[in-house]
């Protein structure tokens, strides 16, 4: 037990995998549920990637599905056209699958760099505008490019992703995000989020830190895209529309922006919920929407805002104060006024 | 040795010359002060000295190094730290994290080490935490290390801002109205704090302050600004009795106000 507590960060996630694997082997979980768990894994990776930008660095990327699209298409092309991986022995397939995934990540990271470099040097919300545009531009480009299937979509991608690989990548992403936040680099980003002017005078090269976080985030989004492509085996440009980006934002803000645990929980719960509510037919989306309103009303920082699972052993943290956090709390009005008076 | 030197700096915003021909030479362990009525250009001088504005004329040297065209973070790396008139703490982070954040740019491990926790990651993190705790203990904030910065009382927020500035290991600290909004007791604390930073830690300090009693008590040399011009400078006694200063503060002719 003591050993478990000491090594909780490296044990817990593989343990969860073993449990799911055993349940699957004994036919308790059917393929439909496994598929949902796999999609939830992809969403967890995406939400964690978004958390690096929106939660940790305090910049707003609202077109993150664009990076996912780049990762998905690059990796799918890699494994489908260049290698035709379907006819290879399994060991080689796995190697090419990992190569394709990394290629997808690098492709997305290159776009992240090209977008982040000019926009993140500015202070303000320019990143939101540019990423919004980027998501739509990428989608339109894919729609008119015949080599990637144009508007018909890209079919015949080999099914290489499995529950195991998605679990591996979710685990790696969680550890990378944890390590990022708990380091000088992450603290620099948190400083930028809380007060950019002060961060600048504390010796933090703000544009460099912002670009680093953004490119890392784009890389992770590309990996999520590759997982998505190799799970569903079919890609359509309209999947990566603005609605998809909004989904990830909803997972992030409902789960708790700035919190790694919140991102994991938000993505998992809100992916599973519409499926659990499926017996209610058309009412399920009403319930889903109602739940989001309730979360924002009673916990404006999100379900896990400012909190972390103990097993992650995060030392750095804090709350991202979003604009409307005081809106619904009558008692905090007085202190808000007092704070304003002091700052003048 | 000169740690902060401003050589005839001026700044022009369109047709307005906000600061004209300002010079300063701050040596190690010295405590200078800039005073002046509202709108005299004090904070503009600070913003030029910290790299937020680029002076249109003249040049700034930190520790003998010319800082032309440098960004604020390069000024900090060269050995300059500042606090703000309206407190700018990292309010969503804890007190300890606030101080640790100021260490960010001096960490000796790279991006890959950080992601995989290899190399010097663990030893560096330990060093940063120990150093931050040392600073917090020195200024009696160690019991509040897990508080969120915006939950601290006002006086301690000011103190934390100074501690955070010290964490960048500067040679010179610029304090922008450290006693603003404080009662007389708290002002005494601030005076002690500033003198400790100067005497015990041996930092050079430049203070902007409206509170005359405090300035006269701590400053070794005072520069008086009015409408961007340096109208008087010298020891506190000399400045206090300068008719030009009295005119700037009280208005009217110097002779009339003297009598």
UniProtKB/TrEMBL annotation, chain A:
It comes from the Bacteria. The chain crosses the membrane at residues 32-53, 65-83, 95-114, 157-177, 211-230, 250-273, 285-305. One of its GO terms (cellular component) is plasma membrane. It is found in: Cell membrane. GO terms for molecular function: branched-chain amino acid transmembrane transporter activity. Pfam families: BPD_transp_2 (PF02653). It is a multi-pass membrane protein. Keywords: Cell membrane, Membrane, Transmembrane, Transmembrane helix. This is ABC-type branched-chain amino acid transport system, permease component. It comes from Flexilinea flocculi. The lineage of its organism: Bacteria, Bacillati, Chloroflexota, Anaerolineae, Anaerolineales.
TrEMBL record, chain B:
CDD domains: ABC_Mj1267_LivG_branched. One of its GO terms (cellular component) is plasma membrane. GO terms for molecular function: ATP binding; ATP hydrolysis activity; L-isoleucine transmembrane transporter activity; L-phenylalanine transmembrane transporter activity; L-valine transmembrane transporter activity. Keywords: ATP-binding, Nucleotide-binding, Transport. The keyword ATP-binding applies. SUPFAM superfamilies: P-loop containing nucleoside triphosphate hydrolases. One of its GO terms (biological process) is L-isoleucine import across plasma membrane. Residues 4-252 form the ABC transporter domain. InterPro entries: AAA+_ATPase, ABC_AA/LPS_Transport, ABC_transporter-like_ATP-bd, BCA_ABC_TP_C, P-loop_NTPase. The keyword Cytoplasm does not apply. This is Amino acid/amide ABC transporter ATP-binding protein 1, HAAT family.
